[in-house]
Every structure is written in structure tokens, then in C-alpha cells.
């Protein structure tokens, strides 16, 4: 599992390595990939973690994305739901091995098993520093 499209401006106070790169250095005049096809791919990923918030464009504030920080995956890579909007607006530079994977799959998100997606989701949650909360209910003994 590899996480892509996470930038310092998306979580400015974070000490996580995941948010070390600035999005400013990833903005391009022209995309290095077929933009419409890449957007469709990103928008077609398997949802693995829903977050009910609206994100604001961290570059110029020109767009908002409902559920933008939700996580999406193709079974190998994980990205935020708002990455497609950054591709559309700013031609964001994406990792070449991700672009190759997408091209090899014909710009179609490959099927992934439930077990694979659960594993990817758990790994992404851990990478983001999320923790399991047992809640306030009574514990259940087995």
C-alpha cells in the first residue's frame, strides 16, 4: 500500500512524514498524463474511509470538495477524494510509478477483494495516526 497526493498544506500542523511535501512544488502548467482519464480513474477508486467534511482548495481556494479528505484506493495506492480536483485544476505531478500502474490497467481501477481493501484501509488509518477507540459502551466478553 502506498499513499499519494497528501501534502503539507492539507494538514499544516502534522508531524507525519506523509505530509512533508508541499503541493506548491507539484503544480504544473501541463499534466504528464491524459488528464480526463486520470480524473476518471481517481474518481472511480474504491472508497475505504469516509470523512464527512468539505475540503477547501489549499492552493488558491478556488474550489471545495464534499468529503474531500475521504480515502480512496485501487487496492495498491491510496489517495484523498479531492486529488481529482487538484489534477483537474493544477495538473498535479503524480508519482511516475502510479501513472505507470494506471496506464497498465487501461485507466480502469482494478477489482479488489474485500479483504484487500480492509487491509489497505487499516494500513492507511495507521499511516495517518488514527487509533481504534473502543467507545463508551460496555465491553463484550467472548
Could you describe the 3D structure shown?
- The protein is an alpha+beta fold and 142 residues long.
- It has one domain (2-127).
- It is built from 4 helices and 6 strands; from the N terminus they run E-H-E-E-E-E-E-H-H-H.
- The chain has helices spanning 35-43, 83-90, 96-104, 114-127, and strands spanning 2-3, 46-49, 54-56, 64-66, 71-73, 77-80.
- The strands form 2 sheets. A 4-stranded mixed sheet has the order 1-6-5-2, with helices on one face. It has a two-stranded antiparallel sheet with strand order 3-4.
- Strand 5 and strand 6 form a beta hairpin.
- Helix 1 (35-43) packs antiparallel against helix 2.
Describe what is shown at a glance.
The protein is about 30% helix and about 15% strand. It is an alpha+beta fold and about 140 residues long. A four-stranded mixed sheet has the order 1-6-5-2, with helices on one face.
